[in-house]
UniProtKB/TrEMBL annotation:
GO biological process: mRNA catabolic process
Record-given protein name: RNB domain-containing protein
GO molecular-function terms, A-Z: RNA binding; RNA nuclease activity
GO CC entries: cytosol
InterPro entries to which the protein is assigned, alphabetical: NA-bd_OB-fold, RNase_II/R, RNase_II_C_S1, RNR_Ribonuclease
Source organism, top-level taxon: Bacteria
Coiled coil start-end: none
Species in which this protein is naturally found: Ilumatobacter fluminis
Pfam families linked to this entry: RNase_II_C_S1, RNB
Ranges for domain RNB: 48-356
Length: 461
C-alpha cells in the first residue's frame, strides 16, 4: 500500500506506533553498518566473468533504487534464452558474518506506506550491491532456456560483472525500449501457465487518495509492464526449482490449493463485486479472464490472496514434490536477494548445482534453519502491513459514522458474519442473524477509532 495526495500526514503517528508494536527495526547496529561499509568496498575478482559489453536493462518502479534484477534476451533456434542477472549479494555477505546474522533477524524488507525497513544497510541494498544504471556491478547470471510451449530450463549459472544499460520504469517503458523477445517470452510463459491451470496473478496495490474533499481507499491495478516483468522471475524461479529438486537439495516456496469452503467464499466475493463467474469455469481461468483495469478485479484478487492462505518455505525432502498452488509447479525463489534473506542461499545452491559442484555445507544447513526465520520475518511484515491497512481503513472512514454501505455476506462462523463492503472495498466482521453466504445486506458504520485502527458496523437491512 502506498500513500498519495497528502494522506501521509494523517497516518504518520499511527505508522510509528505500528513499527513499535511489531518490532520493525528503524536502524542498524553500528557493527552491521561497519560490516556493510567494508563489504561495499570489495572489488569483484576473477570469478566474475566480464559481461559489461552486453545490453542488460532493468525494469522497476521509477523510484526504485534497490535493483535486484537485470535482463538480456536472445533467440536460439525455436527457444528464447533469458539471461537474468541477479544482484550478487553473496559476494558481499558471507554466512555467519555480522550482515548475515542481522539479516536472519530481519528476514525480509518490510514495506510500510511512509518508509521501509531494509534487509541490508542501504550502502549495499541501494548502493554497491544494487544493479544501478551505468556502473559495473557483480551479479549472478542465470541462463534460462524457454521452449515454444513456455517450459523453462536452467542452462547455466555464473558469476559475472555486468552493466545496467538502461533503468526502465513500469509507467513509461515502451516496447521499443525492451530487448527483442521480451513480449514473446511473456507470451510463452502465459501459454505454459494456462496449460498447467496456474491461477498466478500479480496482486494490486492499495492506495489512499483524495476525492471530493475526503480520503478514499482503492486498488491500483498492476500495469501490463509489471505483469510481463513478473514472467521473467517466474521462469527463472521455476527453472531453479526444478534444477534443485533434481539435485536433491534446495529450499522451495510452497502453498496449498484453495479448499472447497474458501472456494465457495470466493464465489460469494465475486457476486459481491458484480462479477459473473460461470459455474463451469475454474478459478484460474476466471482470474485470467478478468479485466485488469476494473477496480472490481483488484478487489477480487485481494480476496483470492486471502483465501489461498499463506505460502511458506520447505527444504528438500526425499520423495516429496514441493508444490505452489498459485504457480501450479515446483518453485524456488532466487530473484530478490536484496529483499529476501533466503534467496541468497538459493542462488548459491543453484550456482553449485549448475556447475557440477557440491552445495556447501553451510548452505545445506541454512536450508533447514531458514523456514523458521522466514516465517517469523513474514509474519512480522504481514502483521505490520495488515495493521497499516486497518489504519488506512479507519482514516478513510473517519467522519463517515452513520453512513450506510452495501455489502455481501462472504462467510459465517461462530465468530460472527464476515461481509464484503462493495465501496470502499473493506472486509469486516459483525453480528447478524438469518443470513447466508451470498446474501446482499446493508450495514451502517457505527464507530471509527483511528488510534486503535478499528471500525465497527451494524447490519441495518
Amino acid at each position: 500500500m502506498r500513500l498519495v495526495d497528502g494522506a501521509r500526514e494523517m497516518m504518520i503517528d499511527g505508522l510509528d506506533r505500528i513499527r513499535q508494536e511489531c518490532g520493525i527495526p528503524t536502524s542498524f547496529p553500528p557493527e552491521v553498518l561497519d560490516a556493510a561499509a567494508a563489504a561495499a568496498a570489495r572489488t569483484p575478482g576473477a570469478e566474475h566473468r566480464d559481461r559489461t559489453g552486453e545490453r542488460f536493462v532493468t525494469l522497476d518502479p521509477a523510484s526504485s533504487t534497490d535493483l535486484d534484477q537485470a535482463f538480456a534476451i536472445e533467440q536460439a533456434g525455436d527457444d528464447v534464452i533469458l539471461h537474468y542477472a541477479i544482484a550478487d549479494v553473496g559476494w558481499f555477505v558471507r554466512s555467519g558474518d555480522a550482515l548475515d546474522r542481522e539479516a536472519f533477524e530481519r528476514a525480509v524488507t518490510v514495506y510500510l506506506p511512509d518508509e521501509r525497513a531494509t534487509l541490508y544497510p542501504t550502502v549495499l541494498s541501494e548502493g554497491a550491491a544494487s544493479l544501478l544504471p551505468d556502473v559495473d556491478r557483480p551479479a549472478v547470471v542465470f541462463a534460462v532456456r524457454v521452449a515454444p510451449d513456455g517450459t523453462p530450463r536452467l542452462d547455466g549459472v555464473e558469476r559475472a560483472l555486468i552493466r545496467n544499460q538502461a533503468k526502465l520504469a513500469y509507467d513509461t517503458v515502451t516496447p521499443a525500449d525492451l530487448p527483442d523477445g521480451f513480449a514473446e517470452l511473456h507470451r510463452r510463459i502465459q501459454i505454459a501457465e494456462a496449460a498447467r491451470g496456474a491461477p498466478r496473478v500479480e496482486f494490486p496495490e492499495q492506495e489512499i487518495a483524495r476525492a471530493d474533499s475526503r480520503l478514499r481507499l482503492h486498488f491500483r491495478p498492476r500495469l501490463e509492464s509489471e505483469e510481463q516483468n513478473a514472467a521473467l522471475s517466474l521462469a527463472t524461479n521455476m527453472a531453479v526449482g526444478e534444477a534443485l529438486f533434481a539435485a536433491g537439495t534446495g529450499l522451495f516456496r510452497v502453498m496449498p490449493d484453495v479448499d472447497e469452503r474458501r472456494h465457495r467464499q470466493l464465489r460469494n466475493s465475486a457476486r459481491a463485486f458484480g462479477l459473473d463467474w460461470p459455474a463451469s469455469t475454474p478459478l484460474d481461468a476466471f482470474e485470467r479472464s478478468l479485466p485488469r483495469d476494473d477496480p472490481r478485479t483488484s478487489a477480487f484478487l485481494i480476496a483470492v490472496r486471502r483465501a489461498a492462505g499463506g505460502a511458506s518455505y520447505a527444504p528438500f525432502e526425499p520423495g516429496v514434490r514441493p508444490w505452489h498452488s498459485a504457480v501450479a509447479a515446483t518453485y524456488a525463489q532466487a530473484t530478490a536477494p536484496l529483499r529476501r534473506l533466503q534467496d541468497r542461499y538459493v542462488v548459491e545452491a543453484a550456482l553449485a548445482v549448475a556447475n557440477g559442484d557440491p552445495v556447501p555445507d553451510e548452505i545445506s544447513q541454512a536450508f533447514q534453519e531458514l523456514p523458521a526465520a522466514m516465517s517469523q520475518g513474514d509474519q512480522r511484515a504481514n502483521r505490520a502491513e495488515r495493521m497499516a491497512l486497518d489504519l488506512a481503513e479507519a482514516v478513510v472512514l473517519s467522519g463517515r459514522e452513520g453512513e450506510i454501505f452495501d455489502a455481501v455476506v462472504i462467510d459465517e462462523s461462530d465468530r460472527g458474519v464476515e461481509v464484503q463492503i462493495v465501496e470502499p472495498a473493506i472486509l469486516v466482521r459483525l453480528s447478524a442473524h438469518r443470513v447466508d453466504p451470498g446474501d446482499e445486506v446493508r450495514v451502517r458504520l457505527e464507530s471509527v477509532d483511528v488510534e486503535r485502527r478499528s471500525v465497527a458496523f451494524q447490519r441495518v437491512g
